[in-house]
Amino acid sequence: MQPNKHLLVFLFVLLCGNATLSAQEDRITPLPIKVANDSIKAPLLPTNILNDSIKVDTIEVDTVPKKQSMLLDKIRYKAKDYVKMSQKDNKIYLYDEAEIYYQDTELTAGIIVMDYVKNEVYAGRMKDSLGNYSQLPFFKQGDNEVRPDSIRFNFDTQKALIWNSRTEQQAGLGQLGADAMKVYAEVTKKENDSVYFLSEGKLTTSKDTVDPDYYIRVRKAKFVPKKKIIAGYSNMYIVDVPTPIALPFAYFPLTTGRVAGILFPTFGNDPRRGYFIQNGGYYLPISDYVDLSLTGDFYTNGSYGFRGQSIYSKRYKFKGNISFSYENLIQSQKGFDDYNRTSNYNIRISHTQDTKASPNSRFSASVNLGSSQFYTNSLNQVNRNNTQTNTFASSISYSKTFPAYPSVNTSLTLSHTQNSRTQTINMSLPTFQASMERIFPFAKRDGVKKGIIQNINFQYDANAQNSITTTEEDFFTSKMFDDARVGARHRIPIGTNFKVAKYFSVSLSGSYEDVWTLETIRREYDADLDRVVTDTIPGFDRFNRYSMGASIGTTLYGTWNFGDNKKIQAIRHVMRPSVSYSYTPSFEKFYETYIDGDGEDVQYTPYETSLYGRPSLNRGSAISFSLQNTLEAKVRDRDSTATEPKKVSILSNLSLSTSYNFEADSLKLSPISLSGATEIIKNVPINFAASFDPYAIDNNGRRINTLNIKNGGGLARLTSARFNTGFSLNSEMFQKGGAKKKDGKEKEQSPDYGANPFEIEGAQTGDRHFNRNEDSANDEEIPLYNNNLPWDARFTYVATYNNNNRQKELTNHSLMFSGNIQLSPKWEVGFNSGYDLKNKGFADTRFAFKRDLGSFKLSFDWTPFGRFERWYFFVGIKSSILSDLKWENRSQPFSNR
């Protein structure tokens, strides 16, 4: 209908126009003007010039494409209050809980204004009648998040201008994972997806995002999320107070995981060695599986030290680390009487293989070797915890299992032990072991074995080693092999077991050994020298030995019932007596004789230097007795809802043992050994042991072949005894309900009563105590202790008694104790000490004072007296990102003064 109407109007106008023109033509009057020809004639141009003057437009189609919108996706938006579109301003207004989504970009705010012509958006806060701001903008693009006061963003260029932005970056590799770096800036310009420029920024790891307890102020900076911040002049502020800690330019890495970089050193002063730097160096991640850190120390008097450490790991395969330390320590100056120069080294290797990597073979290593005085003489704080180490031990082993029946286990081991006091070193380079599984030749492999015949079984094992004993002075020289001994042993044990009279278990056993050696000795009397001369004869030789034995044992039960209405309803006593007999023949054929200076025959064996002992000259025939006891009670449970009585262990073990040697000329009865353990007091284990000698001693303290009871004494005399116990206490035990957790379960007690309750703080050490409060959102959530201070303490008591010669001496009588006291939710004091009741002196005593300062941690470690008297103070930032912002000071070890 609409087009037809327009057509009628057009026709009506056209008809009216024609009528008007016709009327005017009727009134036209012709003018009296004569027509005359123009006398000027224009010259005719040549054809070629005429053609050249005609320009033809060769552009037929416009090749420049029209500008199209750069929006690659739909923009989704909504708001709680209203969404208003203004065609005059070409804008869309969103108010109250406004949201906009475009591709991977998310923007939420109280107010959002979107210009759909310029493809720009502005977001800001809402302000109530009281002037309080709410619904701050939240901008997220990909994994990057920003919380500003206001933001202006262009969807086409992806650029943004941000005011008072706040963002959080995960960086570093702390004890519990990556740390969080908070980045604040008054004005931020987003250049692209990966580059931001900051003006008047603050960097901090504080949990308080409103009023951080510290921050690093940067005037101008370039910010690359998840990578780095490069800043100009920067300085540190503590509670908004500027500090002199400043740098003309700064670089802050924000990458997670392992990144190459400089390890910041520790500075200090040593009265004997001058100013120093410690633990400075470089960290290099070689690959995804291996890294390397190189650190060193330098002192102005010429002392130095360096360390290298590499950690490697491959999931489901293996993991380990290798470290090497060397220190060249100079005391005083050349020309002075107290000048001294020492060098120390230490090598540590650890390697473990995942059991999934190879079920039938395994390689492992644990190496700790070096100078005996490495830890005691070391000036580096990282070695403080090992100053009392007296023994170094190492082991490198490879084992292989052949699973086919009968399975065989083999291993090759290199071992090393070193005593730092005697400076002696024992090594086995190497030890070979092989063992075959137990075989039952007269029974089916999967069948039930009954009787003496079917239970007959035997095994085979071999052991060979090269043993070296040397000193630290000869270590790594050819002299260390001078006293090396090589040998091997083959052993076949045979045994069976069966029942007698239903209640008695009988075992029969025998063993055959063949011992190989690569050297023997020859001993003879030299009349010219008037002494016995021993010559070592190299070459292969062997001897064998065998033994047999039998044992019989049973189990006896005794129960005393007192009635269900009694507190103690019953007591149960279990006894396991056993009697065993062993026989070893004499191997006189492996002995030789020589005539001494008095003309008497002296027997000796050429196999005295064998690694596996010598053949026995005397025949052995002995019977042994043992009795094991356990005692427990059934006690009525205090819980009235319990249907069964509670079992209480009175004696978890009480053992007696002795033996009688039929072949001995005298003193046929061995000392009686007694040992036991009980926990009759809850959480207080008690262990004790004693030895009783049935024979008397003479005035010189030597045992004589007279029973002690016949010499006017008792049945047996006490010769030695040992007693130890330990227990833990804590503040929760004295509260109502005892040591209970919030879920009602009993709090687990630590079994290590003598453990160190704290660790040294420092640049290279973590602090498990400070991590306890890090999960709290703010300090207001931490309750005040008032007069109820959390504490815990551990005590260990040890006493050793010796009376072999009627001396009645306490050889060891000491009390060790350690614990922690929390003076406040952020103050903790730890201690570790002991008192020698015999020598009237304290053991190595240490105190640790710790303070949680929010983003900082403070610690003071103090050893007030003793050989290792010293103190150490540390304060620094907890976060691993800025862990180099610290201050520490220490005294010098007493031994180096």
3D structure, described in words:
The chain starts with a helix and ends in a 7-residue tail after the last strand. The longest helix has 24 residues, at 2-25. Among the domains are: 76-207 and 214-239, lipopolysaccharide transport protein A fold, CATH 2.60.450; 700-896, no CATH class. It is mainly beta and 897 residues long. The strands form five sheets. The chain has a 30-stranded antiparallel β-sheet that branches.
Quick take:
The protein has 897 residues and is mainly β. The chain has a 30-stranded antiparallel β-sheet that branches. The protein has a 16-stranded antiparallel β-sheet that branches. A two-stranded antiparallel sheet has the order 6-7. A hairpin with a 4-residue loop joins strand 28 and strand 29.
- Please report the number of helical segments: 4
Beta-strand portion reads over 45%
Main beta sheet strand tally, sense and closure: 30 strands, antiparallel
Residue stretches low in confidence (pLDDT < 50, at least 5 long) are 1-29, 38-59, 739-780
User: Approximately how much helix is present in the residues?
Assistant: under 10%
* Chain-averaged pLDDT: 81
How would the global form be characterised? elongated
Number of separate strands:
52
Radius of gyration: 46 Å
Q: What structural category arises from helix and sheet content?
A: mainly beta
Distance between the termini: 113 Å
